C-alpha cells in the first residue's frame, strides 16, 4: 500500500504516533483496515481495539498477537462497557494506541441508546498523550462536521485520511428499487420457485423479523433470524448449518461476515450509513450479488392507489400460500 509514492503503513504510523492526536481513517469495505492495524503493531507495543460490536471482537480474538491482559504486549480487544477503570488508566499511562472500530457508531449510537460510547471518546481525550485512530467506511458529510468540531476541540492534532467513503471493494451487480409489497412478493416467489442463492431480508423491527421467520418456515424455506442481543447465538447457528434465507434487523448490518450472500433485500428506508452497511453484507468473499431496496410511498393520488392495489395483492398471495401449506 502506497500513498503519494510513500509507504502507506509507515506514513500512517508517523501520523498516529503524534501525542494527543486523533486520526480519522476511512477506507472501503473489504479494503483491509483491520490488517493494517495488525501491521501497526510493529511500531506500538500495545494496541487497544475498542468496538461497539461484540461480533467483531469475536471474529478477531483468534488472530495472532491478541492478548487477554492489557499489560501484555500485543492487541487487546474490548468494548467500552467491558473495559475496567484500572485497565483504562493503565492504557492511558502506557502510551498505547486506541483503535475505535466502526467509529460512526460511536456517534450514531452514542447520541441515543449507548451514551457511554461518546463518553469514552471524551474520557480518553482528557489524557495529554492519547493516540487514537477511528476507523469507518460510512460517515456522512453531516456526521463528519460534528466529528471534526468535537475532535478539534478535544485533541491537539487531528488528521483526516479518506481513501474511500461509502465505497465497497465488491459492489452489487444489479439494483432494483420497489415499493414494499412488491419487494416482499418478489422475495417470496424467488424463495419458493427459483434458486437465487443465499438471501438476507432486513426488517425495521424485531416483530417483523419474527413474523417473516415463522412465515417462511411454514412454507418450508430454510431460514434463520438475527436480532439485537442475539448476534452471537446466530453466528453459532450460522457456522453449524447456514440457512438459505436470513431475516434480520440492523443488528446484522455490521461486523458479521457471511459466506455466499447473493441477494440483499432491505424492506424499509434506514439512514444512509446503515443502508450501506446492510448492502455490505453481500459479496463479502467475492460473490456477485444483487440489492433490492424499498421505495417510499408516493404522495400523488395514482401512486397511493397503486400502492394499495399492490398491498392488497400481496396480502391475498400471502394468505393463499399459508392456506395451501
Task: Give a written overview of the molecule.
The protein is an alpha/beta fold. The protein is built from twelve helices and 15 strands. The chain has helices spanning 8-16, 33-39, 54-60, 85-93, 104-108, 116-125, 141-154, 180-193, 206-218, 231-240, 272-279, 301-324, and strands at residues 2-3, 6-7, 21-26, 46-50, 66-67, 74-78, 97-100, 131-136, 157-162, 174-179, 198-202, 223-226, 245-248, 261-266, 290-295. The chain folds into two domains: 2-162, P-loop containing nucleotide triphosphate hydrolases (Rossmann fold); 174-324, P-loop containing nucleotide triphosphate hydrolases (Rossmann fold, 3-Layer(aba) Sandwich), CATH 3.40.50. Helix 8 (180-193) runs parallel beside helix 12 (301-324). Residues 1-6 have low confidence and may be disordered. A seven-stranded parallel sheet has the order 5-6-4-7-8-3-9, sandwiched between helices. It has a six-stranded parallel sheet with strand order 10-15-14-11-13-12, sandwiched between helices. It starts with a strand and ends with a helix.
